[in-house]
Amino acid sequence: MSNKERSVDLKGGPGHIVLPAVVFAVPVLKLAWTLGGGGAASEALVAMEPANWPDVLIGMLLEDALLASALAVAMSRTSYAYFAAKGGARVHAGTPTAHVLLQAAVVPFTFALVVGAFHGLWWGVAVGLVSYALRLGVIVEYRTGRRERDSGRRSRTSPSGWLERAADTAAVAALLLAVVVLPVIALLAAVNGRSWTGVVECDVNTGHGTERARLVELGRKGNGVVGWDIAQDEVVNGLNCAVSGNNTVRTPLWRS
Question: Given CA atoms 132, 137, 142, 144 in this order, what sign does their dihedral have?
């Protein structure tokens, strides 16, 4: 590969484009599908205040271990490739390999701790190992000069040859993760019909008396909650709330 590929890391390739799209668009789709349409999503967003819409993404990540893991791995690799292209690779050109390998483990270890804390030990271990492996691919690309050469020739017998083939595999895996696997997982999480936040049962004043209703909690207000009334399709205030044992709001897209 050539300087063109290094430029892709620097300016933003497919993975760099998909990541912000997932982060910004998927929460809106989650709101719209779960609550029943764009109008409902708008009402809910106003009720929870637009500045708090990232709470939807956070809720999705806390609810779905696979989505959290895929996003963590993609972010780990993409950020490393970007900063390497900006000059990080040249700065560490003379740094001992062991030191570079230790530095490269910091972010994967951090993501592993976060994912493991919320979703369990083995999810954290998987995130840490895969993130680190993909980062090693970037290290090999720069340490062997693979992304600095205009020629794509590689030895098939030398150590650098098999290292570069391993880096090829890591690069392909990272690309597939960023542009195929992550979007699919995110879309499935957005239309699975489960709430991104707590579902509670509250007393709601309907204007004709107080009734018990299931609400998607959008925010806290005094001693009650502001929530989306699942049965009535509207934003209401609820009192005397208790956690519902079921966070499913509607049928998943693939079953509807």
Answer: positive
DSSP collapsed to 3 states, the chain: CCHHHHHHHHHCCHHHHHHHHHHHHHHHHHHHHHHCCHHHHHHHHHHHCHHHCHHHHHHHHHHCHHHHHHHHHHHHHHHHHHHHHHHHHHHCCCCCHHHHHHHHCHHHHHHHHHHHHHHCHHHHHHHHHHHHHHHHHHHHHHHCCCCCCCCCCCCCCCHHHHHHHHHHHHHHHHHHHHHHHHHHHHHHHHCCCECCCCEEEEEEECCCCEEEEEEEEEEEECCEEEEEECCCCEEEEEEEEEECCCCECCCCHHHC
Q: Radius of gyration over alpha carbons of the chain, in Å?
A: 23
Task: Identify the bridge partners of residue 215 per DSSP, sorted by sequence position.
Answer: 200, 229
**Residue 142 φ then ψ, to 5°:** -85, -40
Q: What is the pLDDT of residues 102-138, one digit of tens each?
A: 888 899 999 999 999 999 999 999 999 999 998 888 8
Q: Which two tokens stand for residue 107?
A: 């972010």
pTM, 2 dp = 0.82
